[in-house]
């Protein structure tokens, strides 16, 4: 059966919302289009998958993609879109903040006017649309900054409610960063050619149930996306983040060395070893949280990853230590010796960890 529209919905612990969302979509579209819903679940800890499977038993226009080792809203939406054979794909949230009553109007607009994208803006000119004051002001500010940096002429380039022509999506997908939660912005910034797009205004509803997924990881992924689109064609964004962590690690080592060497009055060698160990722990944890936030290790995997990190960085620590010892023995310059050793060690650590510890990421 030919499908006019695929609606891609990413889920993570949305057991209270999926049935109601499907019924609202059904009520809005059933007599107008041939449509389907593609739920993409990132291994929910609640009964989201069970609820979707129950819907599938009674409805033939529902698909479920269950991802066990993947995380991230944008990558979930991309996986869902790639499984669609419809002419148009619509992306929306599963928390009912995006009202399904606007779907058909967006479909009509993109089909009638032969557009690439129609997005639903949370804002109109000088008017709040369903957002509390603080969130409204933050959203407006971030949109203005993004639009200024990348020269985008849109009211809401960060909306998660939009429809796209499948052929246009297929042309864009290879250039996407596949990070974070702002897929529309990623698509816009990944296209060098002119995009035929329009915006409609919609009322942004309150979350029906569950909790917002906006956390530190989302913010980090958003930063990753911006870095990637600004200079990713020169230096990989992941390398930039790793370098930032490494630079902070150098500072941690120097401060630790100063406190131990001068305040505790320990020998240079002992102070140096302790400061290196502190910096290694700092780097591992910050890389796990920041650089590789999309693949953050927890539980047993965290412990295993820590020992792997120690193993590879152990050689870097030795290189760090002996380099600083040699420099110190030659010039008797305490902090200069530590800085040179730390820099040499960090270069080794990056090359080894990116080649082995995180080689598949």
Q: What does the overall shape look like?
A: elongated
Radius of gyration: 25 Å
| CATH fold category name of the largest domain | Spore Coat Polysaccharide Biosynthesis Protein SpsA, Chain A
Poorly predicted tracts of residues: none
Distance between the termini: 38 Å
Task: Give the H and E element order.
Answer: EHEHEHEHEEEHEHHEHHHHH
**Name of the CATH class of the largest domain:** Alpha Beta
Give average pLDDT, whole number: 84
How helical, in percent, are the residues? 55-70%
Strand content: 5-15%
Number of domains: 2
**Estimated structural class:** alpha/beta
Tell me the major beta sheet.
7 strands, mixed
CATH architecture of the largest domain: Alpha-Beta Complex
CATH superfamily of the largest domain: Spore Coat Polysaccharide Biosynthesis Protein SpsA, Chain A
Number of strands: 9
Q: Can you list the strand order of the major beta sheet?
A: 3-2-1-4-8-5-9
Figure out the total of helices: 12
Record the SSE blueprint.
Layout: E1 5-11, H1 18-29, E2 35-41, H2 48-58, E3 62-66, H3 73-82, E4 88-92, H4 103-112, E5 117-121, E6 123-124, E7 127-128, H5 133-150, E8 162-165, H6 166-172, H7 183-190, E9 197-201, H8 216-231, H9 237-263, H10 268-291, H11 299-331, H12 334-357
Parallel strand pairs: 1-2, 1-4, 2-3, 5-9
Antiparallel strand pairs: 4-8, 5-8, 6-7
Helix pairs in contact: 8-9, 9-10, 9-12, 10-11, 11-12
Commentary on this structure:
This protein is of the alpha/beta class. The protein folds into two domains: 5-213, Spore Coat Polysaccharide Biosynthesis Protein SpsA, Chain A (Alpha-Beta Complex), CATH 3.90.550; 237-357, no CATH class. It is 55% helix and 12% strand. The protein is elongated and about 80 Å long. The strands form two sheets. Strands 3-2-1-4-8-5-9 form a seven-stranded mixed sheet. Strands 6-7 form a two-stranded antiparallel sheet. It is built from twelve helices and nine strands.
